[in-house]
Specification:
Elements (H helix, E strand, L loop, with lengths): L2 H26 L5 E6 L7 H13 L2 E6 L2 E7 L1 E13 L2 E12 L5 E8 L5 E7 L2 H5 L1
Parallel strand pairs: 5-7
Antiparallel strand pairs: 1-6, 2-3, 3-6, 4-5
């Protein structure tokens, strides 16, 4: 085998090995089902979401607004938020849920989040926690 043939063979092997490694990496890290984005009340939102936000801020408390593939949540009196995705199968049926969890804060604190999801969601639930350790664990 000539030197050029050896170099070509080694080059093909390297490309093959790195190509396989990349595929394994993408399978090990699939695209997330949900994405949580922390927003400011000054951020630009779609027109209807902005109208909802203005009404929500005036009335205080916790409010949510759903769009196709997105869920906005405004929570006054809370300092932090997180979201989780749950998928369950039972009795031959499946059910998927996005749960948002909020950490209680001062009465003037506010949190605005947008949760985007790339799967069909059956329900969105909210949970409220006073205990910081419980929230972060």
């Amino acid at each position: 085998m000539s030197t050029i043939q050896k170099l070509i063979t080694v080059g093909i092997l390297i490309v093959f090995l790195f190509g396989c490694q990349e595929d394994q990496e993408s399978e090990a890290n699939p695209e997330p089902v949900i994405d949580v984005e922390f927003l400011s009340v000054e951020d630009e939102l779609p027109k209807k979401a902005n109208e909802w936000l203005q009404r929500s801020m005036k009335s205080g408390g916790v409010h949510n607004y759903s769009l196709e593939g997105e869920e906005y949540v405004y929570a006054q009196g809370f300092e932090q938020a997180k979201a989780s995705y749950f998928y369950e199968e039972f009795d031959g049926r499946s059910h998927s849920t996005v749960q948002t969890t909020f950490l209680k804060g001062d009465e003037l604190d506010e949190v605005l989040i947008r949760v985007k999801f790339n799967k069909e969601i059956n329900s969105v639930t909210m949970d409220f926690i006073d205990d910081r350790d419980q929230f972060y664990n």
